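Lab meeting, action items carried over

1. Structure of the three-component assembly. Owner: GW. Status: complete.
Input record:
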Amino acid sequence: MKWVARPRIDWLPKLVVAPSFVLGFLFIYGLILWNAYFSVSASRLLPNYEFAGIEPYINLFESDRFQVASWNLAIFATLFIGGALALGLLLAVLLDQKIRQEGVLRTIYLYPMALSFIVTGTAWKWILNPGLGIEATVRGWGFESFQFDWLVDPDKAIYCVAIAGIWQSAGFVMALFLAGLRGIDDSIIKAAQVDGASLPRIYWRILIPSLRPVFFSTIMVLSHIAIKSFDLVMALTAGGPGFATDLPATYMYSMAFTRGQINLGAASATVMLAVVAAIVVPYLYSELRSTKR
Amino acid sequence: MSSSATTLGAPAASASAPSRSLTWQRWLLWAVLIGFAAFFLLPLYVMVVTSIKSMDEIRGGSLLALPHAIDLAAFGKAWSTACTGADCSGLQPYFWNSVMIVVPAVLVSTALGGINGYVLSKWKFKGSETMFAMLLFGVFMPLQVVLLPMSQVLGWLGIASSVWGLILVHLLCGLPGTTLFFRNYYAALPDELIKAAMLDGASFWRIFVRIVLPLSTPIIVVCLIWQFTQIWNDFLFGVVFSGADSKPVTVGLNNLANTTSSVKEYNVDMAAALIAGLPTLLVYVIAGKYFVRGLTAGAVKG
Amino acid sequence: MGALSIRQVKKSYGSHHILKSVDLEIEKGEFIILVGPSGCGKSTLLSMIAGLDSPTSGNILLGDRDITYVAPKDRDIAMVFQSYALYPNMTVAQNIEFALEMRKVPKAERKVLVDKVSKMLQLDHLLDRKPGQLSGGQRQRVAMGRALARQPSLFLFDEPLSNLDAKLRVEMRAEIKLLHQRTKTTTVYVTHDQVEAMTLGDRIAVMRDGILQQFGTPDEIYSRPATKFVAEFIGSPAMNMITAKRERNTLSANGIDLQLGPQLGAALAAHDAQELVYGLRPEALRFAPAGTGLAGKLTMIEPTGPESYAFVETAAGPLVIRVPGKVDGKVGDTVSLNWQPADVHLFDAKTEQRVVAAQPQLAVA
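Predicted assembly:
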């Protein structure tokens, strides 16, 4: 049974954390409930507390735009999570090979996370722009028929968002996997070498499987980032062309603050919450349990 | 922590071949790493290079070409005269807005996080763990869900269109995260330190100030850097909760880059982006390892 | 009335009982050991004496003051922790005087005490160093210095030597004993090491599963262990235990007659236990001339320098014998063992209590 300190004044610790907890709980749960109420109210341009039942949700799920946004999220999340995992893991494995300039390379791979995507998006918009960016540059090099207009192609624009997202987050994944690899006991690797295993085999059969917990927590965090993605889309395409790169986050903002459909905005926010909760709550629960002695 | 002892390119049991021998595998490794480095650096390179070119050069040349002559005029324009919608006073007012928002929010959320972490790790009481777990959900929840109600609350408090509204929101939003940082860090401090201090006669606050705080420097730095980066880079809250005079630099930048009022001046756009990103980039370059600690602490530990 | 009284102290966490009613009366100036295996409750008991924890029921008195629920700092007790718990950001001098600072002792007085204590423990040249720059033994002494500076009426030690290497442990053990002789402060010392217990304690309290097995002087504990557990716990190599079958008033194991002296014989007759354990310390066994005593085969010899342990397989089970110097023989030899009936310890196999001849039990169980 773990020891716990007892203060002279019994209620002092409780008093100290009370403001944070009270405010925090109100902020999180109070507002979630309030938002949930908005989502079943008749609010349009302005809040209206008249009860409207699940009508907003029906409208939400029947809305073409929301369906596109949800479908986009599925595509984007899959590409983003898969891509960031793959690239991050690859970089981690490569950097694990005793590179002299590891520090410099790590700094380069990770810096995208330190910048807002609004900042780096100004460059990305340009780079992906057919007339000004890569397409123009490569054509300028002589490849007249080179095409890279994904950004303005309604079917392919979402891939650009995924590429930019992977660019921003792969370094973070790399940092996590590298820390995981470094935490593996040296003697396991030495034993495998003595047993005659080749290097790729050691990685594939021993090291990477032992990183399973890191995989889990990384997927968790990446899913969370994917669902929240707002800056990324706004900076790159503002949801366009049309609604081709709309995601639930941009849909919500649009409905709530520019289109005067507060109840739809609130409903979409609640749906986002439900999806995140479905992933996060079991994970948090199992994590906290495993740390209880 | 030991580093994986395997080295690509080195024959397994060779005593003579040095592990840094430039075999073709080593060359390939370096090529791949540098290739990716180029991929990651691409946008930054484009921003820097474009911001110091003149518009003629930009129109005439390619995206990736180095400038013939360095022209810093774009920075001046970005700072003080570029148009961001109706106003044409550059990024300057937005930059200072960000500063006014970030400083109090970071300091207060860090301070509160420290005290909360101290209580939650060493002075636990019945239900404190459960309450903490519930507070932790705030780190993971999608912020969209508080946007609408919070606008209402800020309106009632009368701070809807001022920096105070944004400070409050960032504070509340950052509190679960800072509490997590400190609580995990303090949990690793030996309990016996607290026991010894109690026996020596130190009170709850004395223990915090004389013993725990002096040992907290690393986590304080991590927390400050992490909070600073998060709040400075925020766009969502900035766009939803700010009024005409309280927009942070990310919103200003977005307006500047998307304004359709005049001819597109790409060098000014890029210069503005660099100005907006400079603080967090500097912090990252100077204190990178603390930044990484913050990332991994938040992600790996539940 | 003693300097420290522990009266019917119980501690439970829900259905988990850590301490199941412990009673101890400790006299002023005594050096008391709490010893037992992990989980026996000794550290919990120490925490409660210190005030870092409180009992579910029962009382703790310091002199005639009931301190059961008094805050740690008001108990006039000082403690040395297993990990020393030195404040990493303070110098040695600041560590030692911290408690005095908390009590608002004036600076000049503090300096006098720090100097006195650091001289006593040979720390005076280390006063400006931080704990991170000290060796394990030095840190231990600073921890003791911190406790000494308080000049308390009770010292508590929580396994202070566990983190030291063997040689250092022996040195520090002697220092602690010397210190106690100088200061004569009542001391309660927790350890799992029975050698520390035997060498340091005026009286030893052996605990197991939250119950006090025996409380007595080292000699009493060693020569007249109250339970089978105490008999096996104290003394290394452990006491040889032979499961014996009872035939009216005689004992045998696998057909071998087990001798009992007149006193034990009478005790057995008065006792109604059917299954018994026949105990013999390794030093009580002797090699006998061939043909006499208990026959057996030497299976292993462990020479330790001053003495040797020999492992012998006999019909009554495997036995360990301890002889001074070297063993006369080699592995595989057939040997004979005998012993004095007076050296036999008899225990009830079921209750594990010592079988004694019409005398009040020494055990407080």
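2. GW to write a short summary for the group page. Key points so far: Residues 1-18 of chain B have pLDDT under 50 and may be disordered. Residues 24-71 of chain B form one domain.
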